[in-house]
Design goal:
single chain; mainly alpha; 2 strands
Length: about 70
């Protein structure tokens, strides 16, 4: 995406970078960006796992396979 496309998405409210889990209500796409430090030469996935659990609690009901 170009800078102008990102600026437009921000202005229209279609893209909202946030750290607040409450902002995840009714999202369509979640992009997770967290540090993955190396531990003994392997990536420490705990930050990704934690962020994924947080996002999972906000998955819109239209994607719930149990509905």
């Amino acid at each position: 995406m170009s800078d102008s496309q990102i600026a437009e998405a921000l202005e229209l409210g279609r893209y909202k970078p946030t750290r607040d889990p409450a902002d995840l209500a009714d999202f369509d796409i979640a992009v997770i960006t967290v540090p993955t430090p190396l531990r003994d030469g392997a990536p420490d996935m705990s930050n990704i796992e934690s962020a994924s659990r947080t996002v999972a609690t906000h998955i819109p009901s239209r994607f719930d396979s149990h509905s």
